[in-house]
Amino acid sequence: MGDESPNIGTLTGAIQVRFPQRVMATHRFRGQETVLVKREGLLELARFLKDEPPMRFDFLMDLTCVDYLTFGISPSSAPALATPSPLPYYMKPKPVQETWDRFVSHDACRFEVVYHFYSSTHRHRLRVKVPLSSADPVVDSLTGLWAAANWFEREVWDLFGIRFAGHPDLKRILMYESFQGHPLRKDYPVRKRQPLIGPLN
Amino acid sequence: MGSTIDVAKLNWMTTRLDEALGWARKFSIFQYPFVTACCGMEYMAVAASHYDVDRFGAGFPRFSPRQADVLFVVGTISHKIAPVLKRIYDQMTEPKWVVAFGVCTCTGGFYDNYATVMGIDTIIPVDVYIPGCPPRPENVLDGLIKLQEKIAHGAKVALPASPSSRPPELQAPHRPETHL
Amino acid sequence: MSDEWSIKTSAQEHGLATRHSLLATETRHMFLNVGPSHPAMHGIVQIVVELDGERVLNASVEIGYLHRAFEKESERGPYNNVIPYTDRLNYVSPLINNFGYCLAVERLLDIEATERCQYIRVIMSELSRITDHLTCVGASAMELGAFTVFLYMIKAREWLWELIESVTGARLTISYGRVGGVKADLPQGFAERTRRALEDVRRVLLECDGLLTRNRIFMDRMQGTGRISKERAINYSMTGPFLRATGVALDVRKANPYFVYDRLSFDVPTGEHGDNYDRYLVRMEEMEQSMRIIEQALTRIPSGPVNVDHEGNVLPAGVMVDEAKMGRVAGFKQARVRLDPTLEGSTRGYHDAVNAPERRAVLPAKEDTYGNIEGLMSHFKLIMVGHGIRPPQGEYYSAVEGANGELGFYVVSDGSDRPYRVRVRPPCFTIMAALPELLVGDMMADIVPTFGSVNMIGGELDR
User: Fold this and answer.
1) Is residue C106 part of a domain?
2) Number of domains in chain C
3) Backbone CA torsion sign across C102, A151, C395, B109
4) C288 and C153, same structural domain?
5) Structural domains of chain B, ranges and CATH numbers in brackets
6) Is the pLDDT of residue A28 over 90?
7) Contact B81 C66 (CB under 8 A)
8) Which residues of C touch B37 (CB under 8 A)?
9) Whether residue C36 is found in the same domain as residue C185
């Protein structure tokens, strides 16, 4: 992705031109633009997105995280075919214009913090992803820019164990304080319960 | 010699008293709706005029456990809320009954994961289970009538199964207990 | 809770604690715990408020009591298994959740629902929006003492639920959406019944409007309470009626149209003060606009090959299978099968009208499943574990206008038959995050209308 010459007309192109050192990759999938950015550049990029007139992303619509620990090797599903299965006779192949890349290998980045920005003036959306390693899952907090980030980041900390540097009050939000572990991580068993009060019997 | 107490007569009297109390109680249910989730929508439908739970003398919710005698647990109970539920149950005065409203409270439903309690009967005793996700208001009223019977007769009487209203060809065939 | 309680009294903050304690007229701030089990808390939220007299100085909100692990559960099963869970996110308007999720998966697969299906989705979404607003306005009016309004509005909701039940088979947890289509076509006479029901609902709304809108008590309690400015609302990423009450005309249906909303004319009502009263007015007007949308959609919906009668060549499914085993399959392609009521979801008569022509995602018509080998295989390929709907590796964020605001579904696929990650962007989550700011400065009694206007739905907030 990086070797393509950035297209200034697109959002991602403009960001790539502005932050050549910080942007790891960009892609467009199903009409949605994505920027992968190094965590050092997140705050700078977010400020740029919020204030720059052609961007003007005034909404932090969503903030979440994806744990890529078992991506593509999910034991519960049927083994992925080495090549895509041939299309049935009744389907016309669609022209492939867009690609989607994981970009970074599993070891280097287990988590990706995903930000969805929305601009109410330009009515466009942008997805920004910050890859993080499992050894050091820390990223800068956006609470200084958007008040909405406060609870979103608490939720990501609660369910994924990502720490947000600079967050004013990073504590659990959906689970209780005595809960051990982070339940939405792929290695947390679905049924591992930690009851606060014991069963009656 | 003195007078002897007619024990049989006394038994008769206490039995009649119990019956009278039970009869009075069953039509003056003061319920505490512990509404947490989706079932609350159907609870609202039951409480409102269309289905009108007031016909059964249970139309007056009390939001203080001290004043309530039937605890309606409506909706999924997570591990985070479980201590609260237990505490509210403990605060209610005797005699008290518990209705598990909806399948999440009965068994946990299809939320079988780290966050949910698999049935509130693992925490507090339950008198009437109303399954359904959520139960239809008719189903709730059916459960309420069962509860009234239970209140009237104490726990001594096993409840008869209510006759099915489905046409015979749609009723499930009788099956002996099978080992799953 | 007390040890986690982080709000200091302002006396401590200003270092006045010692001086205060010496004064005879010592005033202390009171901490009041509201919830988690409290009649005004709509389910389960805990608010701890710090009070000076009756004035709220500080508030802290604790959520998560209804965390049911939607996102973890949806990683466990195939794509279609998520749909029942989405019903229970915002259980006051489950249809919108259904369609929001289906839209995300459809875009991942790069398929488009048929036109008739899109109209059906619009109609059902708007019905759901009306029920949601009815519940929200009715419940918050009840909490202010207007019990009559609550009863009227629940009555109106009951009529709409009857309509929804006639289409989906359920009142509340409907599971009506499917990836690539909907479960069933609209039943016979639906348009007529809908128009009649909407007339009734309009009458109820008129009555409630008369009871509430110019009611002095209601106005006094709603006007000027729970105020938030436009800038703060955007900073909190609020959407939906809450944002529109501050004067920002942002509606996903207009801004980034999906389904066929761009072909229907409707207005986006806005307020100007951003207080409880404006939110009430916005919701009331939105119901009217939703009815407008439904009425337009009902006249414009393309007919499509809808044929649900079972006259003529009727054959029970079981008999058909038996016949096919004997090799007597001649004419089966045309034969209609009498299906179980539970299977009537996709019969050949209207299958193509409401489902996308996409066999990677849409189950074949039941006649085909029972009648010919291609249909059976196609069915198997979608039902068998490890096969099913398999979008390519990728991700998509779909946004639809939920009753509370932008409802986003972010789905990541790893190419297998189950979603790798499903994230839902709950609209009332961001509003709840702003709740302390909304409450501070108001009176204790204003918590009730403010919290009521948030329309906090536990399933959506805590997932």
Assistant:
1) no
2) 2
3) negative
4) yes
5) 19-154 (3.40.50.12280)
6) no
7) yes
8) 43, 66, 68, 88, 91, 458-459
9) no
Model pLDDT, residue A101: 60
A170 contacts in chain C (CB < 8 Å): none
Single residue among C23, C43, C62 that ends a domain in this structure? C62
Residues C232 and C129 in one domain: yes
- Cβ atoms of C156 and B26 within 8 Å: the answer is no
| Alpha-carbon distance C283 to nearest alpha carbon in chain A (angstroms) | 21
Q: Which of C254, C230, C252, C88 is nearest to C172 (CA)?
A: C88
C-alpha B116, offset from chain centre: 21
Find chain A residues with C-beta within 8 A of B114's C-beta.
183, 188-194
Is residue C139 within 8 Å of residue C183, measured between CB atoms? no
Is C43 within 8 Å of B80 when comparing Cβ atoms?
A: no
Nearest to B49 among C39, C155, C173 (CB): C155
Answer for the pair B53, B74: CB distance below 8 angstroms, yes or no: no
pLDDT at residue A2, rounded to an integer: 38
Structure tokens at A171: 């504590």
Q: In sequence order, what DSSP letters do the residues of C411-451 get, joined into one string?
A: EEE-SSSS-SEEEEE-HHHHHHHTHHHHHTTSBGGGHHHHH
Domain boundaries, chain A: 1-70+96-190
pLDDT at C318: 59
User: Which chain C positions have a beta carbon within 8 Å of A159's beta carbon?
Assistant: 71
ipTM of the complex: 0.83
**Residue A112, φ and ψ in degrees, nearest 5:** -130, 120
A28-37, A91-100, A115-124, C363-372: lowest mean pLDDT where? A91-100
Residue of C232, C399, C418 with shortest CB distance to A76: C418
C143 domain residue, yes or no:
yes
Same domain membership, residue C131 and residue C43: no
Query: Domain residues for C438?
Result: 112-304+427-461
C36·B81 Cβ contact <8 A: yes
Does residue C68 belong to the interface with chain A, where contact is any CB pair within 8 Å? no
pLDDT tens-place string over residues A98-123: 555 655 555 567 888 999 999 888 88
Verify that C19 and C149 share a domain, yes or no. Answer: no
Q: Report chain B residues whose CB lies below 8 A from the CB of A183.
A: 114-115
Q: In a 3-state reduction of DSSP, which class is residue C53? A: coil
Residues C285 and C158 both lie in one domain? yes
Specify whether C20 is located in the same domain as C140: no
Q: Please give the pLDDT value at position C397.
A: 92
Instruction: Report the CATH fold assignment for A1-70+96-190.
Output: Beta Polymerase; domain 2 (3.30.460)
Q: What is the pLDDT of residues C185-223, one digit of tens each?
A: 788 788 899 999 999 999 999 999 999 888 898 888 888
Q: Is A96 on the interface with B (CB under 8 A)?
A: no
With CA atoms as reference, the chain B residue closest to A176 would be B80
Question: Is residue C19 domain-shared with residue C165, that is, in the same domain?
Answer: no
The shortest CB-CB distance from B76 to any of C39, C66, C72 is to: C66
Domain assignment present for residue C127? The answer is: yes
Query: Which residues numbered 408-427 in C keep a CB inside 8 Å of some CB on A?
Result: 408, 410, 412, 414-418, 420-421, 423, 425
Mark which residues 377-406 of C lie under 8 Å from A by CB.
385-387, 392-397, 399, 406
- Does residue C16 surpass a pLDDT of 70? no
C274 located within any domain:
yes
DSSP letters, C56-72, are EEEEEEE--TT---HHH
